[in-house]
Amino acid sequence: MTTALDRIRVGSAPDSWGVWFPDDPRQVPWQRFLDEVAEAGYSWIELGPYGYLPTDPARLTDEVERRNLKVSAGTVFTSLHRGPAVWESTWEHVGQVAALTRAMGAEHLVVIPSFWRDDKTAEIIEPSELTAAQWAHLTKGMERLGHEVKETFGLDIVVHPHADTHIDTEEHVERFLDSTDSDLVNLCLDTGHYAYCGGDSVKLIETYGERIGYLHLKQVDPEILAEVVDNGVPFGPAVQRGVMCEPPAGVPALEPVLTAAQALGVELFAIVEQDMYPCPPDRPLPVAVRTRAFLRSCGA
What we know:
Elements: E1 8-12, H1 30-39, E2 44-46, H2 57-66, E3 70-78, H3 87-103, E4 108-113, H4 132-153, E5 156-159, H5 170-178, E6 186-190, H6 191-196, H7 201-207, E7 212-217, E8 219-220, H8 222-231, H9 235-240, E9 244-245, H10 254-262, E10 268-272, H11 284-297
Parallel strand pairs: 1-2, 1-10, 2-3, 3-4, 4-5, 5-6, 6-7, 7-10
Antiparallel strand pairs: 8-9
Helix pairs in contact: 3-4, 7-10
């Protein structure tokens, strides 16, 4: 018998509709995303790239409420390992997104570190390993960000380990967690990105449970991932090859992840994100419907 995952709040995001940018002709219009995410049976969404959905809180509230949707989080990109020189520009960006996130009644801000390799060209922008000084900038910067976001907007930041960033592998994720204050910084565990980088999501939840503040649900295709790793393919082209696949076809198995998360005894968002930029406009909805049905079969 399937265990009821009554502490897991399932949602989806623009990412599952092939949306990576605020404005891109290859992406579905935001109205269609909202219509289809509701049709697929989800009640929670993320904001996606700032500017994709309307940024006027009154208008966005009207649009989501008409479709019986609610917002779980906003997302920001940061490069805090570069030190205090980037703080002002970082805070300007964070402030915009955090204000809208707060206005929509959400409580989380997902923070993604910047890429060390260009997502489109594969150009190496900076070394994949940080120096000790850069690690200190990163961890202290995230703690400062967590403090300021909480004080100013009442939101909790959850840092998202991500392929082709400096917080990716098990070693880097554990170093980051061990170097930051749990009162200020917790984790958005993305099961797909963590598997992409060789990590075990269930082990991470069981070891660092008090630091898991939010989940992104996705899977990787192990065969495509093996080719990607062997050939040093950057994340963007890897997505175009289909490295992130529809569950339950890939890894990690999501049932054990959800069961481990349920066992933490706290309410957690679990937002489906199936990276597939760019994709044909008719592809996302059927995938989203099947994925929602699969998660229901797991008890979520």
